[in-house]
Structure formats: structure tokens, C-alpha cells
Amino acid sequence: MSKVLFVYAKGGPPLGYALSRVAARSAVHLLALSALPPTVAASVDRLCDSVLSPSEVERRDLVSLIVSRAQAVGADAVVTFSEYAVVAVAEACEKLGLAGAGTSCALARDKRMMRRTWEEQGISQPRFRPVATEGDLRDAAAALRFPLLLKAAWSAGSTAHRTLRSPDEVPAAWERAREVMAESAQLGYAELHVAGAGADFLVEEIVPGTAADWFEQEGWGDYVSVEGVVVDGDFRPVCLSGRMPTVEPFTERAGITPAALPDEAQRRIVDLAREAVDALGLQNCGTHTEIKLGAHGQMWVIETAARFGGAMTVPQIEEVFGLDLIGMLTDHLLGREVSWPEEVRTPLEARGAAGSLVVLAVDGAGAAWPDQRVWDFPTVRDAVPLSVGSHLSVVAENSLPDGAPVPVYDPAAGANTMAALCLLSATDPETVLRDFRTLVDALPEILPTDGIMEAQS
């Protein structure tokens, strides 16, 4: 039987979901670089032939650790679905002679190198400048047009994003962004291979996005993501995911599969995504490419990742289009024949729709809740009036336990302040969006306060 070394770190699709798909194709040996979620501990023991949690000392040379572990278990492939481990796994695969993302994987991880590559090839993107000091940020602010977005070069989940509207905001933005990166590292949300990556930043102009020229229904966000895969250097787009509007500054609230876009709009978006992915020279990996939508057909590439979209993006694709992308990629890395989609899938080919909602303590307009509530999914499930045929569930692995306080939303910390992740299945993407808006409006009213939960306990 074939053997796969699964390198686990925080981020990406839920571990329980990903492990089950890989284990259906191969024996699995788990290298756990982050603590395993308590909700999947039992399934890890059942699905894996071995589990190794290396010490801090062993992880200092992560590529060597992955190589030695792969050799020890006789791995035929090495996989990871975490943003924070993709570069190390790609380098390890090169040393092992196994299929992987390739030597240019870092271009899809370090946003500074990514943007420089696109700039050299004339690919549409916001104007930007790399920054390493507060002085660099001041100089960049003088050269670019406000408003600006400061972001960490190696972050994920909108962590350490800060909006700047004037030069006076530079010192506070710089200090807070660095603080958040340090806090994220303590939580395990940080690059695991590149030393000092938390100190690398870039700043970019905030381009004027609009959803109105692209979507018939109100309430969609002004950007989409193209989900796909690179197979032996050939980009294969799978589908588009839509979004709700982000929460200030640019924290993602919800992803919806498929995006309710007409075929011609999809084609143009996919063409730009193909340019962006091809420019990075990736070899064998999932891809997740975010594209900002503007007026009169304008588009800008925001970023690409050498891995599948996080949260519930991949499970949504399996539910809606019947494509097990993790299993398919595993088969490909093991040298098996895989029938990848010839063309990007459209809403007309979807079997209903699915979406995932990040629960944040902000209302539909992005304003903070007036008081602190506690998370309680049974209350949400029973009290929110959803559309006929819609089904809501909670992703326990990515959620606080019932009774835990919902964190106060911190714009700089982004998704680090989420309380839960909910999954909704519905008849079509328009219904998912409508139900999510209902859910967002209801949460600060229906979730109990601390006093109510204490009385019930």
C-alpha cells in the first residue's frame, strides 16, 4: 500500500476532513507541527498509521525534519494543506525527488515576491511597496495614493491588516501590525520555515472595488476567489467562490460556492487567475487566487496561494460539484491517473450551493456588537429563520465550545478573533447569501449573555 506523510499545521481545511480523504487513498503518517484539535483526536488515532509531534528543537530545521520523517516511514508523497508549511514541504519534496509545489513555491507565499513577479509580467494588481521599517512605511505612504493597506508578507486570514488614510496614522499602524504578528505566532498562526518572516510587510493602494457591476443580487462582496490546482505545471481552474463584504479592514466573513456570476464574467476572471498562477511557475499543488472586482470590468489580482482555500472551501466544492480535491491531489502526487475538470465548473452545473460563515462580533454593517455574548450553536440553530431547504451546522474543529464568550472583534487581529465557523447548505448561492445576512443580523440578538448561560448551567 502507498504511504503519505501528512504535515499538519494550523490553517487550511479542517484536519478531520482532510485526513479522511487522504486516508481513503493511502496509509497516512501524520507529522503534527501544531497541537491536534481535541475534536479530532480519536479519528487521528483511527486514520493514521503513526503520529509524531516533534519538539521545538527538531522543528528548527523543518525541511530536514520532513525529509527524515518521510524517509523513515517510506513515504511515496508528502502533503500539507496549511499556508504556514507549504514552503517547507515544497523544499522537502524537491530533496526527496517527490512531486510537489516546486522550487518557486515561495513566490506564492511571500506577498512581496509574488507582487514583484506579477509587476514584471504586467499583471493587473494594486500598486504596492515592500516595507521593513516604520521609515519604509513613511516613504511608501508618500509615494502611493491613500487609502492604503498595510499587510504582513507571510500572514494569512487577514491577520495584521491595517488601513491607513493619512500619514499621521503610520506610527500606530506599524506598531499594531507588528504586535499582532507576534501575538499570532504565539497562537500558532505563523510561517514555520522562514526565520523572521513576521517582520516582513508590504503596503498597497486600496483599489475601488464594486460588486454591483458583476452580481445581479445585492449583498455580494467585491472580490472572488478562483479555486484550482496545478498539475505538472498546468493550471486547472475548478470553480469560483463568492464572498460577503469583508469586515473592516479586510477580514473575510463568508465564502460561498459557487459564485453567482454569468459565464462571460467567470471566463474573464479565470483568464486573469491563469495569468497570475502561471507567472509563479508552480508545479503540483492546489491553488487559491483572490481577485478584486471593479467598475466597468476592471479586475486586480490580490494574491495566490500554493494550496487549496482554507476553512470549508474544499468541503463546499465536494458538496456542490462532487469533486474531492484533496483525494484527487493525493492520487496525483502518488502517480495515479486523475480526471481533472476540463473547464471551470459553473453555477449551472452545481448541485445546490454551500457557504461557510465566520462568526465575528460585528453586525452586517461592520459595527461592533453593543454587548458581549457567548457562543451557543443550539440557540443559533433553533432561533434563526432560514429559507426552506437550508441546513445549518457548526464546524466544531474551528469553533469555540458552547458557552464560551464571543471575542471582541479586533480589526488588526482579523480571523484570530472568530468565535465559530458555520456551514450552510441551500438550494442556490443566492439563498446562501440571503440566509447568511439573516444570520449575521440575528446573532447579537439571539446569542445569550454571560448571565443567561450561568443561570442555565
TrEMBL record:
Gene3D superfamilies membership: 3.40.50.20, ATP-grasp fold, B domain
Statement: the UniProt record of this protein carries the keyword Ligase: yes
UniProt xrefs under InterPro entries: ATP-dep_AA_Ligase, ATP-grasp
Limits of the ATP-grasp domain: 115-334
Keywords (A to Z) from UniProt: ATP-binding, Ligase, Nucleotide-binding
Signal peptide: none
Record's protein name: ATP-grasp domain-containing protein
